[in-house]
């Protein structure tokens, strides 16, 4: 019967046929060991010369890397394998022979691997990272569905800039100007006024000319928005959500975390509640750590975030940033209007900000004033002002960057390995 590698645990002692690719092989005289993958996982196929037809054994020894096959054999338990099973091969049928596969088991440079990203995805490490990414996405839908959220899809083409920045990809929309979305947030606020609690999951684009290990030009965001949620309510939801996805990966991706040699003890500690410090306290902490150049009113860079994160064993919220360095829509602290009711969630181990969120301004006059201060077109944002005109309520939301979160949880150094086909400053291929 046909099976996949992920299903062989249900077929112990039975003969199965698996469609697979040969990722590697080795032989020692009378035994050939085939490293097989089928997309669902990896398994070792063992071909014993005395137990198969001579033709089958010779075929096994001559197979080239990434040749596609149908492999038939008996499923056996194998305590030595991280997967726990192996295949006692009886027959091999070649579907397509791969010749001169470019990514060999030797070391390759990053640029070479990125040029061959369409093939590099097949490797064990990349497979593990993508499976962890998939689990985070699955757990995200599960978490928000359980909490009664409705998924809403905001547009990718927009006529204005949610963050009010110039780092946008511009295009012509017939006879109008349009931009690739840098966030679905404003549209999610409109959806929250209709459905109460909503979330989106989709691509966003930032035309930042940055080459750091934390930045991509195109990345994916999870953006929840909640009516009748104040700042504190949002923080509690954020720490519940992050705890949930981390624990889901620990539960369902043990094999992948092991393949990446991830120190899971650090992830096991990620349980709500998370520590919190204010922007003021963060400035003091940085001064104590030797960052004398950072002054109140300046935004934090990667070294600052890393230094703050090193002070804690869990993700840490930095709250109450100065209003002048945050977007126009954030609610001022009523007790201290020069700061806003916002928070960035900084991941441990130097992975930086993974969530940015805030309570949103819900007063019409204040929002209009802020738009004018940021020199933004009132006409372009009239629909956004309407949300404060017809039944406005306190509301909050946040955005989680998927690729940085995958990098942190999986322990890989660079976000380019956490998205199937990364778009970087100097890379649009493949």
From TrEMBL:
EC number, UniProt record: 6.1.1.22
Keywords annotated in UniProt: Aminoacyl-tRNA synthetase, ATP-binding, Cytoplasm, Ligase, Nucleotide-binding, Protein biosynthesis
A GO term for molecular function: ATP binding
Reaction catalysis annotation: tRNA(Asn) + L-asparagine + ATP = L-asparaginyl-tRNA(Asn) + AMP + diphosphate + H(+)
GO terms for biological process, alphabetical: asparaginyl-tRNA aminoacylation
SUPFAM superfamilies found in the cross-reference section: Class II aaRS and biotin synthetases (SSF55681), Nucleic acid-binding proteins (SSF50249)
Keyword Manganese attributed: no
Residue ranges occupied by any Aminoacyl-transfer RNA synthetases class-II family profile domain in the UniProt entry: 130-430
The keyword tRNA-binding is assigned to this record: no
Compartments where found: Cytoplasm
Gene Ontology cellular component annotations, sorted alphabetically: cytoplasm
NCBIfam families: asnS, PRK03932.1, PRK05159.1
Self-association state and partner proteins as the record states: Homodimer.
Family, similarity comment: Belongs to the class-II aminoacyl-tRNA synthetase family.
Protein name, UniProt field: Asparagine--tRNA ligase
Organism of this sequence: Bacillus smithii 7_3_47FAA
């Amino acid at each position: 019967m046909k099976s996949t590698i992920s299903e062989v645990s249900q077929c112990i002692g039975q003969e199965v046929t698996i469609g697979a690719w040969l990722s590697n092989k080795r032989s020692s005289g009378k035994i050939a060991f085939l490293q097989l993958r089928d997309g669902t996982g990896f398994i070792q196929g063992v071909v014993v010369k005395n137990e198969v037809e001579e033709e089958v054994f010779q075929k096994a020894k001559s197979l080239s890397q990434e040749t596609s096959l149908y492999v038939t054999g008996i499923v056996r338990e194998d305590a030595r394998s991280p997967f726990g099973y192996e295949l006692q091969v009886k027959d091999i049928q070649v579907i397509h022979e791969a010749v001169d596969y470019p990514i060999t088991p030797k070391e390759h440079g990053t640029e070479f691997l990125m040029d061959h990203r369409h093939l590099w995805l097949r490797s064990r490490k990349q497979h593990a990272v993508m499976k962890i990414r998939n689990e985070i996405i699955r757990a995200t839908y599960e978490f928000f569905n359980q909490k009664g959220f409705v998924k809403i899809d905001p547009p990718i083409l927009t006529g204005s800039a949610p963050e009010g920045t110039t780092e946008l990809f511009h295009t012509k929309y017939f006879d109008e100007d349009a931009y690739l979305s840098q966030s679905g947030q404003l549209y999610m606020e409109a959806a929250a006024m209709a459905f109460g609690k909503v979330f989106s999951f989709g691509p966003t684009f930032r035309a930042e000319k940055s080459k750091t290990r934390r930045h991509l030009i195109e990345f994916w965001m999870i953006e929840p928005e909640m009516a009748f949620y104040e700042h504190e309510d949002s923080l509690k939801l954020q720490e519940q959500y992050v705890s949930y996805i981390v624990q889901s990966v620990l539960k369902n991706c043990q094999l992948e975390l092991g393949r990446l040699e991830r120190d899971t003890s650090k992830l096991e500690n990620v349980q709500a509640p998370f520590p919190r410090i204010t922007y003021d306290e963060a400035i003091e902490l940085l001064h104590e750590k030797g960052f004398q150049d950072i002054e109140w009113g300046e935004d934090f860079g990667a070294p600052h975030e890393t230094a703050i994160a090193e002070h804690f064993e869990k993700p840490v919220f930095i709250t109450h940033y100065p209003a002048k360095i945050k977007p126009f829509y954030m609610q001022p602290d009523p007790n201290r209007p020069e700061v806003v009711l916002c928070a960035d969630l900084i991941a441990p181990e130097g992975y930086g900000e993974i969530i940015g969120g805030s309570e949103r301004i819900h007063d019409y006059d204040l929002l209009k004033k802020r738009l004018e201060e940021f020199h933004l077109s009132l006409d372009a944002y009239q629909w956004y002002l309407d949300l404060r005109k017809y039944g406005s309520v306190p509301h909050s939301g946040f955005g989680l960057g998927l690729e940085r979160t995958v990098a942190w949880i999986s322990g890989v150094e660079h976000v380019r390995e956490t998205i199937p086909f990364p778009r970087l400053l100097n890379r649009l291929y493949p």
